[in-house]
Specification:
Blueprint: H1 3-9, E1 14-20, E2 25-31, E3 34-41, H2 45-52, E4 60-65, H3 72-79, E5 83-87, H4 102-115, H5 126-158
Parallel strand pairs: 1-4, 4-5
Antiparallel strand pairs: 1-2, 2-3
Length: about 170
């Protein structure tokens, strides 16, 4: 980051929108409505944090949409002191445009964050996440058990056999 940008941003809130993907992250950084960085970074918290450390003299607010990448980026940003928000894509206001690109999405997220138009999702604690995963796995196993039981009943019926009492419901 250049000294001109550092001086311009010093003490002013910085808004960062990230369009997160598996292969790369598209990042837009705004300060007082001015775009001071827009580009692609490698998908690692370390690289992003290193880029954002130049704005330490300011309050840095970061947002990205929920998705398959989970919340580990959010946790990494919070650990180093940034204000991070994860927002559900369904609640991001849509602006009618003909072209939808990752660059446009990151710019829109940064702009919406600066305007206070975004809602945040509740980030689960590691304990809550473990409980949820346990329940999800139990439900999947129960569903699979019922499907297998129904397949057995269907096979027995197909071959004219009586369904044992242990399989009856």
């Amino acid at each position: 980051m250049s000294n001109i940008q550092q001086d311009f941003c010093k003490g002013k809130p910085i808004y960062v929108g990230i369009d997160v993907h598996k292969q790369d992250w598209v990042v837009t950084v705004l300060c007082q409505g001015e775009e001071i960085f827009h580009g692609t970074v490698t998908p690692s918290p370390g690289g992003l944090i290193q880029r954002l450390k130049g704005y330490r003299a300011s309050e840095v607010h970061v947002v990205y949409e929920t998705g398959p990448t989970g919340y580990w980026l959010h946790q990494a940003l919070v650990e180093v002191g940034f204000d991070s928000m994860v927002t559900p894509p369904s609640l991001v206001p849509h602006v009618t445009t003909r072209v939808k690109t990752d660059h446009w999405d990151s710019r829109k997220l940064a702009t919406m964050l600066a305007g206070g138009f975004l809602k945040r999702v509740h980030i689960l604690t590691p304990e809550e996440l473990a409980h949820r995963q346990l329940l999800r796995t139990r439900n999947q196993i129960e569903k699979h058990r019922k499907q297998t039981q129904n397949q057995i009943k269907g096979m027995l019926l197909f071959h004219g056999k009586t369904v044992p009492a242990s399989l009856r419901e």
